[in-house]
Amino acid sequence: MQKHHSLHESPQYVRVLSIFILASFAAIFATTIVLSTYMASYMKRQMMQRDAVVSMEFLNSIVHVEGAERFFFERELRPAAGEMGEVFEHILQLPEMARANIYSLSGEVIWSSDPALIGRTFDDNEELSGALRGELHPAIASLDFEHKIEHAGLPDDVEEFVEIYVPIWSSDGNAVIGAIEVYKTPTTLLAVLQDIVRLAQVGALLAGAVLFAALISVVIYTMRILHWQEKRLVEAERLAVIGEMASAVAHGLRNPLAAIRSCAELVAEEKIEESTRQTVLDIVDQVDRLEVWIRSFLNGTRAEPQDAADTAHVDVIIKRCIESFRPQLQRHNIEVVLGRCDGHPIAAAGSGEMEQVVNTILANAIEAMKNGGRLHINWSNAPGRRVAIEISDTGPGLDEDQLQSLFVPFKTSKPSGLGVGLALGRRIAERFGGTLDLRNGIQKGVVVTLTFPARA
């Protein structure tokens, strides 16, 4: 028997899924890195800028309150170094201050917390030039990463610090009169910035993982739907072939069956023994059953909706089916057990079609119990205004390959089977809005559940 491939076994779907997983992972991973880096950088800039603005407001207020604007002009106007230190000693009161340098407009250090730097100038200092243009650009610096001359003399335990060149404005706010360079070691701020970077990275990774999982779930679900639709399309094509075959077979069988029925009726009208007459009438009944089966077979291959007037008395149909299989049941020593049989439910389905489906199920169960067994039959009203029929046997059950191909037309493990019975049975049930499901029993055997809408 040909093996039926599931979604996970299909090379085509596995290849498509693998390509999508790799492509989506690469795209999401790259996007996550970019977003986390940008988000962390943006938050760091904002926090540092805010801290720099506070420092700028504090330093400008000192200059204006102390009347120290004159110190930024010509050299001859500056007081002695000692007096200069008294004026700007408030600068060192800034929290976590490591060093401060005060520059004139010419770039000369006119005061510093390190007296060795007073009077010096430093070339190619873009940060200082920006501050003298009124710009405020705080930055995190490291002695190991970037060494500048003005960094000399910093404490040995300082590894990372915030460097800010603060523009100093005139009292009217119209011009920059100098700049103050401050070196701060804000342990708390730096720790917060590291936490921000870490949280941004973790958050972006978690968001990327959730997005990736959601995308994979949607794709797998979509591919399952497509796989199921593909199977249904193949099944529909096969059933269409069955329909064409059935039409040809029906035309070939109906005329001989009609002749057999007519001959049997003529014989029944003759003066014959009563036992022989009953046998002839049985022939007429079986011919009528064959006619109903052929009609159901043809209807089962069509996708037409149910007739609103269709009704089927479940208990009557099941008992009729059991009676028609009585000889086979006795021959194979099979006991029929009617279990839960609630009332007399009526299904919104064609009685002939339902009888055909039940006959198919019973025939399969009898064939599975060639050495005898027990056939359990239950029927009841199910939730959702439905009628449920459950038929179970004590046969050997089915293996995984058989379960996968049960409803695939023309696929069968029986030497003399065609592989269309259960496929047509499910087709008939679905045409009336019902279902036909099959599973292995808890201990052994097969359990078949057949449902139809209940007639109001």
The main β sheet shows up as: 5 strands, antiparallel
The CATH class name of one domain reads Alpha Beta
CATH superfamily assignment of one domain? Histidine kinase-like ATPase, C-terminal domain
| Mean model confidence by pLDDT | 77
Which class best fits the helix and strand makeup? alpha+beta
CATH topology of one domain: Heat Shock Protein 90
Concise description?
By secondary structure, this protein is an alpha+beta fold.
Give the arrangement of secondary structure elements.
Blueprint: H1 11-66, H2 81-88, E1 97-103, E2 109-112, H3 126-132, E3 139-142, E4 160-169, E5 176-184, H4 187-269, H5 274-300, E6 312-313, H6 314-324, H7 326-331, E7 334-341, E8 346-347, H8 351-368, E9 373-382, E10 386-392, H9 400-404, H10 421-431, E11 435-440, E12 446-453
Parallel strand pairs: 7-9
Antiparallel strand pairs: 1-2, 1-5, 3-4, 4-5, 6-8, 9-10, 10-12, 11-12
Helix pairs in contact: 1-4, 4-5, 5-10, 6-8, 8-10
Describe this structure in words.
This protein has 456 residues and is of the alpha+beta class. Among the domains are: 75-185, Beta-Lactamase (2-Layer Sandwich); 308-453, Heat Shock Protein 90 (2-Layer Sandwich). It has ten helices and twelve strands. The strands form three sheets. The chain has a five-stranded antiparallel sheet. It has a five-stranded mixed sheet with strand order 7-9-10-12-11. Helix 1 (11-66) packs antiparallel against helix 4, helix 5 crosses helix 10 and helix 8 (351-368) packs antiparallel against helix 10 (421-431). The longest helix has 83 residues, at 187-269. The chain is rod-shaped, with a radius of gyration of 46 Å. Residues 1-8 have low confidence and may be disordered.
